[in-house]
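With this grant's support, we have settled on a layout for protein records. One resulting record is reproduced below.
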Amino acid sequence: MLKIHAALRTVVTVLCCIITSGAGQAATTAPHPLVPIGYFFDNPTFSGAVLSPNAKFLATRIGRAGQRDALAVIDLTNHAAKVVASLAGADVGEFSWVNDNRLVFDATDKRIGEGDRRYGGGLFAVDRDGSNSRQLVLREDNAVFEHSLVKMLPANTYLVEQQGPRNTPFVYVGTTHLTGADDLAAINLQRLDTLSGRVTAVGRPGQVQEWLLDQQGEPRLVTTLDRNLAALLYRDPTTDKWRKLAEFDAYIGGKDAIEPVGFGPDGTLYVSSSDGHDKTALYRFDLASGKRDPAPMIELEGYDFTGSMVIANGKLLGVRILTDARSTIWFDDAMKATQQRIDALLPGTVNLVSVAQRAETPWLLVLSYSDTVAGSWNLFNTETGKLNKVGDSHAGIVPAQMGQQEAVRYKARDGLEIPAWLTLPHGSNRKNLPLVVLVHGGPYVRGAEWGWKADVQFLASRGYAVLEPEFRGSTGYGNKHYRAGWKQWGLAMQNDIADAAKWAIAEGIVDPQRICIAGASYGGYATLMGLINDPTLFKCGIDWVGVTDIGLLANGHWSMHSDLSDGYKQYGMPELVGDVVKDAAQFKATSPLQQAARITQPLLLAYGGADVRVPVYHGRKFYDAVRLTNPNVEMVVYEEEGHGWTLPKNRIDFWSRVEKFLDKAIGKP
């Protein structure tokens, strides 16, 4: 068993010490101009690259001034670059290699909000030299490649994550089948020839929710759902028959729950499981006996296992993991040494190395980031030991101007230890700062990890400390921490958030008279409940796309259009959040909508007019109620947006409002 101890990445190396014109440190720490807001909230200037399977070519999505994002390929033998695909009226979205010569990609539209989207992403294929272009899946607008002679797949068809050697023209795609209530009933899998457009259906064993391919690129494992029961089914390569490996409650898990991580080159299945312990770990799963190994393969101290396999040249090279930050456990000695060489060249950052599946060249792709570095891609040559810059996600961001993030832990009032993330403004003396307690959504997810975040760093650049508590119910920290948050909306979960602010006060970090609470979705709900439960602690609140009444999640007049599945409402919500009938009294006591008159602090509300997770009905109804007794409430609705802001203009507008709101409410001592 390999046991990994989490080590906080607190060493931050300044990668650039020259302050460019028009960007500077926060006004509270230096006389330089503030970093422009667009540097944080514009679309990324560069958003990633992928090596071809033979590592001779690099595919990348490029932005062009006044034009749509296009797909380009760089020949790594001579560094010649060529745009190989672009779309009329749409941007190139996700992309991947089919084989050394062919790529597939879908489409998106970065100029419209979620509410104005009318088409699926489609699917397109093109050779690396720009020839043999073909549309494979409909978008319905036809503003793309020329029509195919072969009938295209419907718009609700999407690329399945591909595994294997990638040496054929085929990919697997899944077509979603919905119920009358627009819930996912099943995904039908098809083998698609990217040259001819012809498809071959794969038999589906039940109501499949997810397909997993093996390292030969063949469908080998599925997850099915029947009411509240999830099952893993394995297709035996010797018989071609499906058989059940495991069954467990899809919504509340349990000791028998297992999460497939991936197949090894030899066909070994690796899974994440708790096996009755508090935290999940990585196990080998014996396909013959249908049982996981007795001892875990990788166990992370203080964290549930979250990770993926790194496989190339028919060998399991390592496992990508997440503790406080992301890193890689290398089993291969050569890759372990290579990681050390790269880390020496790029100190102070997480450096995630991508290895081509059948590399014929010495090139590796490296994504680097930290709490102050937004994201940078380099090519590393294992023969010369040199790095070649590929691109930066936010070119205007100067690391030397960003705030440093650290992992902290504090005790809640009942003694439970709560992890949290604290980011301080650059140059801060760590004393008497205004604070924003930023509450994550979900709520049954992990909130943050060590790394650059636009909203957090924007607030820090304006002089605010930012504290992100991983309150009980957050995942990734073990079963005890997770289950402690069940049915605790507005109760113990809320106390954890208040206790985070009280910890920061006791540490002398913040001014107790200048604390604001903020968050989106569940975080918006917690913001409103924070203002209600702790009116002397939180001086203001910012709620965007937030739940304002738990009962509305299931019973609102808009619920038929909600993207919360009927299965979750029937089986998951009663256990995790509460039963709308049995827990009606608790829901009323923890309803911001029904207690709106208790909120007297300044409040900023923002909602998306096309949100199907927390429809704008939540915000409008709450705004009408709170305005009866509180004149210090502002509300903005972005009609074309969904559950969050996709358009830069709306992100910039919203965070400009946040900046003005905070400056007025808690910005001055």
In short: The longest helix spans residues 648-665. Residues 399-665 form a domain with the Rossmann fold fold (CATH 3.40.50.1820). Residues 4-31, 557-561 have pLDDT under 50 and may be disordered.
